[in-house]
Amino acid sequence: MSEKVLELSISGMSCASCVTHITQKLKSLNGINYININFVSSKATIKFYDELISVGTIINALNNTGYKAELAHLELFISDISCASCIAKIEFTLKYVFGITNFNVNLATKKAIIEYIPEILSAQEIKKIITKSGFHPEYIQSNSDYEREKYEKKEYEEQKKKLIVSLLFSIPILIISMLMINFPFKNVVLLFLSLPVIFWAGIQFYIGAYKAFINKSANMNTLIAVGTGSAFIYSFIATVFPYLFVKTGNNVEVYYEVATVIITLIIMGRMLEAKAKGQTSQSIRRLLGLQPKTARVIYDDKESDVLIEDLKVNDIILVKPGEKIPVDGEIIEGLSSVDESMITGESFPVDKKLGDSIIGATINKTGSFKFKATKIGKDTVLQQIIILVEQAQGSKAPIQRLADIISGYFVPVVITLAVLTFIAWLLFSNDANKFHYALMAFVSVLIIACPCALGLATPTAIMVSTGIAAENGILIKSGASLEIAHKIKTVIIDKTGTITTGHPQVTDIITNMDKNKFLLYAASAEKVSEHPLANAIVTEALNKGLNLLSAQHFQSYTGNGVIAKIGENEILIGNKKLIEDNNIPIIYAEEEHNLSNQGKTVVFVAVNHTVEGIIALSDTIKPDSLYALKQLEEMGIEVIMVTGDHRNTAEYIADQVGLERIIASVLPKDKADIVKIIQAEGKVVAMVGDGINDAPALTQADIGIAIGTGTDIAIESADITLIKGNLTGVVKAIKLSNNTIRVIKQNLFFSFFYNVLGIPIAAGALYPAFGMLLSPMLAAFAMAASSISVVFNSLRLKSIKFQINKY
Known about the structure:
Strand content: 15-25%
Oligomer: single chain
Largest sheet: 7 strands, mixed
Shape: elongated
Strand order of the largest sheet: 18-30-29-28-19-26-27
Structural class: alpha+beta
Radius of gyration: 33 Å
Distance between the termini: 66 Å
Helix content: 40-55%
């Protein structure tokens, strides 16, 4: 066994015990025989046997300890990949490169996304490895979609120019050949007419085939070059040395029309394909077009127009009515309402006031305001959305695996079948024109079998659907997430901030103390907490004009409450469990029971180990929650509500939205265990939460769906993020997944069916019974049509109507 050395940088280590924890976890892996972690430099040296364990397994194990291996991310644009076999070749090459931990090459985007260990490899070395495999990768200097758009436009224009030239020369060739027009030096004229088509318009296929050959591989270009090249070379010899054929007693026949018309049809297919593929990424381009080019910045009380890329964090920016907000920020002066529909999908403008956050690219509707820039460049919500969607568009769905496996063997198998077809016709046919039929069948098999459609079947559908999702405020992290979503059988939903608004208000205060003093104690203790109930209590106190006191010795008990010292008084505020755990006698139990039955959340407030009163708070249900949950039920999906609230409160909310199954009094850390229990029943589970305290459950679920505003934590924890904070996004995501998988299956079926059916027909399977032999030109037309049909079938996803029924 060969030993390899892995050098890694590790982030997140804060103490020596971190080293011990990581070392113990990694030592338990079979195949690792040496580990040394330097806490000061955050570097790890690991020796292992690659026959027993892979680099990917080691890194996954390290990441599961809670610390992260620092990996580099590389994106390359590869313009000369043309079919699924090209993808298979590149991925096969990258698979065995030590230091590369993950990779994906996408035909639709012509982009390679590679994750690697910078201590072992450099980006330049990876680029050289791909170049040696016969391709020409380029670094993506700016926005990748912009680069791809430039390439698509350029490719379309180039193919259009080549198509025009090809038509000008191939149409006369076709007319002369099909009508059997005879005149002196006919074959010589046909030869010269074919030269611009073969050696200018079609040279791209021959160059591509040559590069593949010298790199010991084969691709779509190989099939085209061998097929058309065979017809052209035979015709050239028959034209220049006709006596060779006359001596053998054969008529001198040429097939210039086969070579030229096939090339013309394939170029036409590529042109239409480039045009159609450009439509698959329109959603990203629309997002890119949302951001304004300049911002009105206040410098020394003077307004100055500044380019977006020159903005800095904390710049003060003025926005007037009807203008787009340039970047993310926080309002410091003024009031307004903002149209956020282009980001969140919310149709109604949102009121904004002092201290509220705003999102770049949204539209200011009414008043003028000043805001402080908090996020610029790639950190803005819009750019994060674009990055996330691009990553999803470049990812693969598991359903594509079969196509990838087949693509790796496809071209060599097809060439073998074509050669066998040619030989079979010569050996077993008694027809006087058997050489003609053998050559036609040989070319037809090569041309009709080009695996273009197979390579486009999945990525084009994923590109379209993730773009549509982004336009509807749904961020899908990967193709795998999109595929799994249609299998969801159970949706576990957090209550607060998900079914409800998450903004509770104080409704009742019951105490024997002075109410203002009682509220002052409670709010002062809670003001450090970030819990929604704490914020509601603090807001109630501030609305009453109370000046909050400083809290000392603050302690938070997750899911239960807080304890703090206000002056000389110890204040305990939380649920019944916190009171009982601190051995404080329960008072106001009857009042708490009655308020809980009304669907209100009740917290006890104890001063110096005596319960002095209770505070009741109520959360409101989001307007669309009822509709969304009913729709999920109609789709045959079980919905379970989980909440840390008392069961009475949970039942009250569940009754309002029509839910039958609830799990109450659940701590955030226990939600992941609930997901595991449901998964153990054999169900595909989606967890819907706010992406922060629900992170463990979101990660455990088959699909984690975060409700929020596209925060980093939500995107990191969840597979799908709903920027617009309501549950209709869950319904839309599942519907989109259902439609996308249906389209992908259709694409794959027609791709496989086309080749399985087309190859035997091209080889002459129908000739013995019906005397029919497929023309190579029809084969070329069918091949081009198959690729175009796959792209257009994917574009049908744009017609999906996300109708949410109102009840």
